[in-house]
């Protein structure tokens, strides 16, 4: 290296050697890193690229603004006076004669019925290529059949004639004198003003004729209508155009046409509504007359028949309620007789089979009620139970062969098998006769009663029909009168509150917006490019790349100084340099533990400052009072002898070959505690010499004679030299230059040490700038160590 050391006085802070070992240190607290540190670092590194991109973007914005035209916005406001039908108008068979729902006015405004009329009235389908030629086309209209396209009108002022050609083909479409109508064959209705032929020469005018429908569609798309707020009766419209006066004319014409269309639509709807009501009124009158005739006919026909509230027919009771009560009482009695007869038949069958006691007959309602027709049966059942009781008493005294017992048995059997069945049969026959008589009477009364509700219901139905028809007819009469009145005084449901007025200043000037977008886009693109380039950068830029990607703890950092070297008169530069190597020295001491220190200093590639770091580190150890030897292990391109201004031979290679002693190759320096061994004679076999046992023996001998042994090795990318020397010393310090070291190369070269008995102390980040992400690696000025006379001590300087 061309850099050279400037030795200075030394100090001996002995207490620095009493630090604990590296392995015993507790891990430093982890402080979360700001997520914007790395982007800010990328911005600082590519600041000139960012500035260039932003300037180019601003220039592009300036060019773009030259092609922009300011737009003028005109506004108008409408008020909706119809609420879509009031509450009272919504009742009845036909609703209010409102035109449209308030939310549908926007749709009506955008119809081609209105837009086409606006386009034709203002001749918006005509577009001159030069706006200054617009007065020539005053009075231009189109016939029902016309040709659209691009045309060129040539006015010959000298000959007082004109020609019309189709562009771009140049085909002649029409020609004529100054007083002739232009473009009759194409469907144009237009005459060139007389003042256009004044003077001499020719005037060529280019223009385009579009279809009114296409122009109307584009105009509808330009009309802006914000959504109407709920419960609001106001509707706002706006329109933009480069011509402010034309924009106001378009919007005002649109409003007038809209009002006319709305009035015509309402007039037509009211007329149709009145006609509909007239037809329905006639129908309702016919329905009312028919209902009244039917009700009258029914009342005449049923005037002599019984009804619910009037007299009943002959043979019945005098009032309605006793007749109906008697009918239902008879009906209940008839049902009881039928049920008793059915139950009596089933009990008689059970008694005959001796499967049911004869006293079950007493459970029949007719028998139990005490009716005379069932008296004999009740008496027989009582006698039967008495005979059975006597028989039971006699059997307690006598046997069944006794005459008294036999007589009682005969009596019981006679009652059970003869008299009771006979009396039950007589009762059943009596019940059947009553059942037939009651059924005939009930049937007769049923027919008479069933006719009363039928006649009443029919009369009520006809009354309701008559009332409904009457109410409908009355309602239609009122509506028809209101419709005739509304038709006679019809007014639109829309009113213009604010007409459009041409503004003095453009409402939308896009030039500032374009410039702002260009500036924002330039800044954004430049920042994105800077961050992208930073993410794709393969060189070492940030501390976490050494710790996270390469797995190396940061043993120390060395600041970047001017190419001319350290300014001896700059206390700030000197202080930063001295403190950086003191920190590095402390890291090496704590990593070594007890005993002499032997360490190799290397880097992944050349030019990363390993020789400068090793030399300054050696001087720092010497300043601390430790006997230090600095060995130039770069036998290929070693330059420590130039830095210390001494001969390169004899040196390391010479003692490894043999023939010289250790005392012959060690050279003192201006630092009392610092000794230097140069690289020696350059040999082709120097890589093999570094892998020989003589190197290990030399390291052991140096450790015995010195407190600190530092080897400056070749770059790891140069070959096995650095690996051999690091294996012999047992420790390695890796120098990485910020902005130069290639991370992938460093990672691959460091991977070899996973299989070697080498302890990697850490990384020295060389060439840092104490700001940004490295702002925390600097030292606070003003705390320099000084002697009593004010002079600094322990200074290490670079040149």
- Summed over residues and divided by their number, the pLDDT gives a mean of 77
Q: Given the structure, what is the number of helices?
A: 21
Question: Given the C-alpha coordinates, what overall shape results?
Answer: flat
Task: Give me the Rg, rounded.
Answer: 63 Å
What percentage of the residues does DSSP assign to strands (E)? 5-15%
| Annotated CATH topology of the domain at 5-17 and 575-767 | Rossmann fold
User: What is the correct CATH architecture of the domain at 5-17 and 575-767?
Assistant: 3-Layer(aba) Sandwich
Strand order of the largest sheet: 12-19-18-13-17-14-16-15
CATH class label of the domain at 5-17 and 575-767? Alpha Beta
The strand count comes to 20
Can I get a quick summary?
This protein is of the alpha/beta class. It has 21 helices and 20 strands.
What does this structure look like?
The structure is a single chain. Helices cover 47% and strands 14% of the residues. It has 799 residues and is α/β, with parallel strands linked by helices. Among the domains are: 5-17 and 575-767, P-loop containing nucleotide triphosphate hydrolases (Rossmann fold, 3-Layer(aba) Sandwich), CATH 3.40.50.300; 46-70 and 509-535, no CATH class; 126-209; 320-488, no CATH class. The longest helix has 86 residues, at 403-488.
């Amino acid at each position: 290296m061309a850099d050279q050391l400037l030795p200075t006085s030394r100090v001996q802070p002995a207490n620095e050697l009493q630090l604990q070992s590296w392995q015993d240190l507790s891990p430093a607290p982890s402080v979360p890193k700001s997520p914007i540190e790395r982007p800010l670092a990328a911005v600082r590194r590519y600041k000139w690229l960012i500035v260039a991109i932003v300037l180019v973007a601003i220039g592009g914005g300036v060019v773009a603004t030259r092609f922009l035209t300011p737009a003028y916005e005109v506004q108008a406001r409408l008020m909706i006076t119809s609420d879509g039908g009031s509450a009272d108008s919504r009742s009845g068979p036909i609703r209010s004669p409102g035109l449209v729902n308030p939310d549908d006015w926007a749709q009506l405004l955008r119809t081609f019925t209105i837009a086409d009329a606006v386009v034709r009235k203002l001749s918006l389908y005509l577009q001159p290529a030069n706006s200054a030629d617009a007065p020539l086309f005053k009075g231009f209209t189109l016939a029902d059949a016309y040709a659209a396209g691009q045309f060129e009108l040539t006015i010959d002022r000298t000959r007082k004639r004109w020609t019309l050609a189709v562009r771009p083909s140049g085909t002649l479409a029409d020609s004529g004198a100054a007083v002739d109508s232009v473009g009759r064959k194409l469907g144009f209705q237009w005459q060139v003003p007389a003042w256009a032929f004044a003077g001499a020469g020719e005037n060529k005018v280019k223009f385009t004729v579009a279809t009114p429908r296409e122009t109307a569609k584009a105009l509808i798309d330009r009309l802006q209508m914000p959504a109407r707020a709920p419960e609001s009766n106001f509707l706002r419209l706006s329109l933009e155009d480069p011509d402010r006066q034309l924009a106001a004319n378009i919007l005002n014409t649109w409003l007038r046409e809209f009002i006319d269309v709305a009035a015509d639509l309402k007039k037509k709807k009211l007329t149709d509504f009145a006609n509909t009501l007239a037809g329905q009124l006639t129908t309702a009158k016919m329905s009312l007359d028919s209902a009244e005739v039917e009700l009258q006919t029914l009342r005449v026909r049923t005037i002599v028949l019984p009804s619910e509230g009037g007299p009943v027919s002959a043979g019945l009771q005098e009032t309605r309620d006793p007749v109906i009560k008697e009918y239902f009482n008879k009906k209940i009695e008839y049902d009881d007789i039928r049920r008793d007869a059915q139950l009596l038949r089933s009990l008689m069958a059970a008694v005959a089979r001796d499967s049911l006691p004869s006293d079950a007959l007493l459970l029949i309602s007719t028998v139990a009620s005490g009716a005379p027709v069932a008296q004999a049966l009740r008496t027989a059942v009582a006698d039967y139970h008495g005979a059975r009781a006597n028989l039971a008493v006699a059997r307690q005294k006598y046997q069944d062969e006794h005459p008294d017992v036999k007589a009682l048995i005969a009596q019981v059997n006679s009652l059970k098998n003869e008299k009771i069945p006979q009396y039950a049969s007589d009762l059943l026959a009596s019940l059947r006769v009553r059942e037939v008589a009651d059924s005939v009477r009930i049937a007769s009364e049923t027919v008479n009663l069933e006719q009363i509700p039928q006649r009443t219901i029919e009369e009520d139905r006809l009354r309701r029909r008559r009332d409904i028809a009457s109410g409908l007819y009355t309602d239609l009469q009122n509506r028809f009168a209101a419709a005739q009145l509304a038709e006679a005084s019809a007014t639109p449901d829309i009113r213009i509150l604010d007409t459009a007025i041409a503004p003095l200043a453009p409402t939308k000037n896009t030039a500032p917006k374009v410039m702002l977008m260009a500036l924002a886009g330039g800044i954004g693109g430049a920042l994105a490019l800077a961050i992208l380039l930073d993410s794709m950068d393969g060189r070492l830029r940030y501390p976490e790349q050494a710790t996270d990607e390469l797995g190396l703890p940061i043993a120390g950092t060395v600041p970047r100084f001017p190419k001319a070297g350290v300014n001896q008169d700059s206390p700030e530069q000197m202080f930063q340099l001295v403190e950086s190597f003191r920190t590095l020295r402390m890291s090496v001491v704590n990593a070594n533990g007890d005993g002499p220190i032997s360490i190799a200093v290397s880097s992944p590639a050349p030019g990363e400052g390993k020789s400068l770091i090793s030399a300054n580190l050696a001087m720092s150890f010497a300043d601390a009072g430790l006997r230090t030897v600095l060995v130039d292990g770069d036998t290929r391109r070693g330059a420590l002898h130039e830095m210390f201004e001494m001969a390169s031979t004899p040196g390391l290679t010479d003692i490894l070959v043999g023939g010289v002693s250790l005392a012959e190759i060690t050279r003192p320096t201006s630092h009392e505690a610092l000794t230097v061994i140069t690289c020696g004679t350059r040999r082709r076999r120097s890589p093999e010499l570094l892998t020989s046992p003589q190197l290990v023996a030399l390291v052991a001998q140096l450790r015995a004679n010195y407190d600190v042994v530092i080897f400056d090795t070749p770059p790891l990318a140069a070959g096995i030299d650095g690996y051999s020397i690091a294996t012999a010393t047992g420790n390695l310090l890796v120098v990485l230059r910020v902005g130069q070291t290639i991370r992938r190369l460093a990672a691959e070269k460091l991977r070899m040490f996973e299989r070697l008995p080498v302890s990697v102390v850490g990384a020295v980040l060389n060439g840092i700038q104490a700001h940004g992400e490295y702002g925390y690696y600097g030292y606070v000025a003003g705390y320099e160590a000084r002697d009593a006379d004010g002079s600094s001590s322990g200074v290490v300087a670079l040149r």
